[in-house]
Design brief:
Length: 333
């Protein structure tokens, strides 16, 4: 494929991947191909994020405006490591770096041609350890592969605390019109203590305690045992104090429950976090509940009848996890 292409840019991109796969380091690879290391890393990151098919797509649009091809490459590399809140700030960087002035509109047009769009950043725990997360994922997969469903079950556990209120979100609304939703004080909060079966997204165990503490966790675990008599129960949980509490662990001594702790700062590895987001989307965000008891009833009914959502949940709650690289990018102002 590399030899078949007449596109020099595509040839270089493919060569970077092949040489790294053959054992060459990044510095030597980039030197041999006459590109800078930042560009080489950008090619690798793009391959990892979009896959081989899109990586090979030649969407490059030649630019004959104010910036040269090399300057666009430099800008692209800078934006891959730095996030700006508006186009005006990027105009300032371009002027400082190249001495070339852009209007906001002109910069927006350039960014679009370069393949950028204006969208939300994704929060990432600053202290997440990618290696710890990878080791946990391997441990989880090994556990699930060796599991006898007649003897054992794995649950992801966590607590959520939705507030009685309406959160504005996106929806299909006719152009030129507004879709108004009533709001309330949003001062009352519902505590949910839950467990989600790793292999069956419709198998949930839920409790609504007055307070989430070790006693509430004991109550949830008791429900899990009632639902799975005679089975060993693996409870995947974070490092919250109510899971590590001495009284809870003393109670667990003669119980068929084994707690497996997630690496610190790893909500991305807790499958039930996706269920909470699904709950907000379907039941909480854009629905007005006049009374708190109606709010609680709606949430309780959601968990009691997940069958209508089974297809969506099976697609959403897969055991595919992406480790977090906490290095991230820098936000520029």
């Amino acid at each position: 494929m590399r030899l078949a292409t007449s596109d020099k840019r595509l040839y270089v991109r493919i060569s970077v991947l092949l040489m790294l796969d053959m054992g060459f380091n990044m510095v030597d690879t980039c030197a041999a191909l006459a590109i800078d290391v930042t560009t080489g890393r950008r090619y690798v990151n793009r391959f990892k994020s979009v896959g081989l098919e899109k990586f090979l797509d030649n969407n490059h649009v030649p630019y004959t405006g104010k910036l040269s091809e090399a300057q666009i490459e430099t800008l692209d590399a800078h934006l891959s490591e730095n996030c700006y809140p508006d186009a005006k700030s990027i105009c300032g960087w371009v002027k400082s770096e190249f001495g070339i002035e852009y209007s906001r509109t002109g910069m927006v047009s350039l960014l679009k041609r370069m393949g950028y769009s204006y969208k939300k950043t994704r929060p990432t725990p600053a202290k997440a350890d990618k290696n710890d997360q990878l080791m946990f994922i391997v441990r989880l997969y090994n556990l699930l592969q060796g599991l006898n469903d007649d003897e054992s079950v794995v649950y992801f556990t966590d607590a959520a605390h939705p507030t009685h209120g309406v959160k504005a979100s996106f929806g299909w609304i006719k152009q030129g019109e507004e879709f108004e939703i009533k709001t309330n004080s949003g001062r009352s909060r519902l505590n949910i203590n839950g467990a989600l079966n790793a292999k069956d997204p419709t198998d949930v165990v839920m409790d609504f305690p007055a307070k989430v503490n070790w006693e509430a966790t004991k109550g949830l675990y008791s429900k899990m045992m009632e639902k799975n008599p005679g089975k060993t129960i693996y409870a995947i949980c974070d490092n919250a104090g109510y899971y590590t509490n001495k009284k809870l662990n003393d109670w667990l001594n003669d119980k068929p429950i084994v707690q497996i702790f997630l690496p610190p700062y790893s909500p991305n590895l807790n499958l039930i976090e996706r269920l909470w987001k699904f709950l907000y989307k379907k039941t909480i965000n854009t629905v007005y509940y006049e009374k708190f008891k109606d709010f609680k009833t709606a949430i309780s009914n959601f968990f009691s009848n997940l069958k209508p959502y089974e297809k969506e949940l099976k697609s959403l709650l897969t055991l595919n996890f992406t480790p977090i690289d906490s290095s991230g990018v820098k936000m520029q102002c």
